[in-house]
């Protein structure tokens, strides 16, 4: 059973839960997925799935790997640049804007992808799907809008 069905989205998406989550989950889950070649994940253990997205750093030119919650639509992946509800965009999203070619690793399989930032209309169409995957996105969107006025970027990762 998904933790998002047991714990209210408002609590999961809250400021303090997000502050702890962003410091603990990504490094631990990344290490676990690397060690098991994608076969084990903390997020999967609580009923959610992650893909590992490898982008190229827009400043450094170095590969950067980020674990992301995702939804599938047709053969594509959809990811949300919520940055745990922080006021600024996540680095991985800015990396995709600078260079849309990336690699998604799912269940140990490396999949070349090309990212496309969704338009406002496309974003509105996939938002309900993303809320099914992770209801806290609405709380993040409210918090981000109130703190910085930015709109959370949503990307479609199309298989290359």
Automatic annotation (TrEMBL):
<protein>
    <submittedName>
        <fullName>Nitroreductase family deazaflavin-dependent oxidoreductase</fullName>
    </submittedName>
</protein>
<dbReference type="GO" id="GO:0070967">
    <property type="term" value="F:coenzyme F420 binding"/>
</dbReference>
<dbReference type="Pfam" id="PF04075">
    <property type="entry name" value="F420H2_quin_red"/>
</dbReference>
<dbReference type="InterPro" id="IPR012349">
    <property type="entry name" value="Split_barrel_FMN-bd"/>
</dbReference>
<comment type="similarity">
    <text>Belongs to the F420H(2)-dependent quinone reductase family.</text>
</comment>
<dbReference type="GO" id="GO:0005886">
    <property type="term" value="C:plasma membrane"/>
</dbReference>
<dbReference type="InterPro" id="IPR004378">
    <property type="entry name" value="F420H2_quin_Rdtase"/>
</dbReference>
<dbReference type="GO" id="GO:0016491">
    <property type="term" value="F:oxidoreductase activity"/>
</dbReference>
